[in-house]
Structure formats: structure tokens, C-alpha cells
Amino acid sequence: MLIHGQCHCGNISFELSWNPDPVEIPARKCDCSFCMKHGGVWTSNPQSSLIVSIGEPEAVSLYEFGTRTAQFQVCSRCGVVPLATCRIDGRLYAVVSCNAMQDIDPSLIRPAVASFGAENVEGRLARRARNWIGDVRFSDRMR
Q1: What are phi and psi of 72, to 5 degrees?
Q2: Which domains does the chain have, with CATH numbers?
Q3: d(CA 19, CA 46)
Q4: pTM for this prediction
Q5: Peptide bond connecting 20 to the previous residue in cis, omega within 30 degrees of 0
Q6: pLDDT per residue as tens digits for the range 20-66
């Protein structure tokens, strides 16, 4: 299934090729202070591929906090965060915001609260390498 998504103004957009077609889309409602403040609900499928397009690169801010192991791609024009990335051993991984997905049947999305505050950095990176999207390309520039 090809899932399209974007920030509110369309400056940051993505195409997520979800393989195989999902019966449901697991969604993590992270309980960290950043995700709580902006309503972050994230999904990923390690068998999927992601292509990210950025219309105006100068209108994208990268936000890091806590362990500084993930970069939240924030559109400076509309304030939406459609994805987060993490580089592990030279490979780029990503999660996408369920809130930024378009034309998706909402009944497919299965949100559950996720708490990662007790993880150490090594455990966090290992979890991301197992669960995040590992085939990530930026069509307009590399991150």
C-alpha cells in the first residue's frame, strides 16, 4: 500500500510504501514531553520504504532533545512534524506521523501509548534499528 503524507502546507511530504498491505497500522502515542505537547502519534514498518520530498529546505528545522539521537523534521512554515529520523551505524531510519498521513482509512490505525523514557541510548538505538523504516531516501536533499 502506498501511503502519502505531508505537513499542513505541503513543504515536507512523504510516500510510504507499506509492505505487505496492512491489516492494521500500529501507532505509538509517545508519552515524552515533546510528543505530548504536539500530539505525536508515530508509525513504522521495517519492511517498508520511505521517500521524503522537501519543497523549500530552508523552511525545515531539525529538532533534537533528550538523547539527541533522533531529528524531528519540523516545517518552519506551518509547524507540523511529519517525520523523525535517526542515523545508526551510517544508515538512516525513520518514523512517520500518523497525523500527517492522507487518504488513509482511520480504522486501520491502532494507537497505543508508548513509553521510552527508561531506555538507555544503546537500547533505544537497537529498538529503532529493529522497528523503524530502514529504507529512507530524501528526494531533494540527503539528511
Answers
A1: -85, 125
A2: 2-138 (2.170.150.70)
A3: 9
A4: 0.90
A5: yes
A6: 989 999 999 988 888 888 889 999 999 999 999 999 999 999 999 87
